[in-house]
TrEMBL record:
InterPro entries: Acyl_CoA_acyltransferase, Glycosyl_Hydrolase_84, GNAT_dom. Residues 2-200 form the N-acetyltransferase domain. The keyword Transferase applies. It holds the Pfam family Acetyltransf_1. It comes from the Bacteria. The lineage of its organism: Bacteria, Pseudomonadati, Spirochaetota, Spirochaetia, Spirochaetales. GO terms for biological process: glycoprotein metabolic process. The keyword Iron does not apply. One of its GO terms (molecular function) is beta-N-acetylglucosaminidase activity. This is GCN5-related N-acetyltransferase.
């Protein structure tokens, strides 16, 4: 599609902004965060720096960056890079923060301080993972599907046989979307569900 293209460095401010504007279980997180950067620092920007060829953005009719899909074809390698290269300087800063505007902000900062764990599904046939976020005015127009299909092709080309992702249990809209896109629930957690889809 013409309104989807590979992400570029110039897109980064918009990616941070979109990450925040969809941070509250898919809804606008702006009122819940003192720190406007922490969401993008963990859930958007590192993917672009690690593997830009599998990160894509969506433009609206005015050519404004209004959505993205970011991810990696190799979660195990990405997680190692996150822990060793991306997170330490951020952890130095965020470990000083003691005042949170909401549980949502506290939870994101706690996740950033801990970093990605061992994970399971990347070793069980779902090596890729992703995050997709589209601003409200561009939702429901088929853009999510186009971004997803573009991402599937990109990670398949790099050898990924499956993709997994996590969804907040309160984000019921996303559940419907992922099921429509061929994902099934792999595992239930207290915070939501892990979904997976084979790419063969
Ligand atoms: C969830 C999200 C990515 C979906 O993208 P979208 O552009 O709105 O979805 P699309 O219009 O591309 O829908 C693709 C297909 O899924 C279907 N679909 C979308 N939402 C659905 C739902 N809640 N239930 C069932 N089907 C749904 C559409 O009907 C469409 O079906 P079709 O292939 O038959 O036409 C987008 O709404 C979004 O970014 N929301 C806010 C952030 C968010 O929640 N991100 C996910 C965090 S885990």
């Amino acid at each position: 599609m013409q309104n989807i293209r590979q992400a570029l460095p110039q897109d980064l401010p918009y990616m941070y902004s979109i990450a925040l504007q969809t941070a509250f279980a898919g809804l606008d997180g702006t009122p819940y965060f003192y720190d406007q950067w922490c969401v993008g620092h963990y859930y958007a920007a590192p993917y672009f720096f690690y593997e830009p060829d599998v990160c894509f953005i969506a433009l609206d009719e005015n050519s404004r960056v209004s959505g993205y899909i970011v991810g990696t074809s190799d979660t195990r390698a990405f997680n190692t890079w996150m822990q060793q290269r991306w997170l330490p300087v951020l952890q130095d800063h965020y470990s000083q923060i003691k005042d949170f505007k909401s549980e949502a902000e506290q939870s994101v900062i706690k996740t950033l301080l801990k970093g990605p764990g061992e994970g399971l599904w990347q070793n069980l046939g779902y090596p890729a993972h992703l995050h997709i976020d589209i601003l409200e005015h561009l939702q429901g127009k088929g853009i999510g599907k186009s971004l997803m299909l573009t991402f599937f092709e990109a990670v398949k080309k790099k050898g990924a046989s499956g993709v997994h992702l996590g969804v907040d249990g309160r984000n019921t809209r996303a559940y419907g979307f992922y099921e429509r896109m061929g994902f099934e629930i792999l595992e239930q957690q207290n915070w939501g569900s892990l979904f997976g889809r084979k790419l063969t």
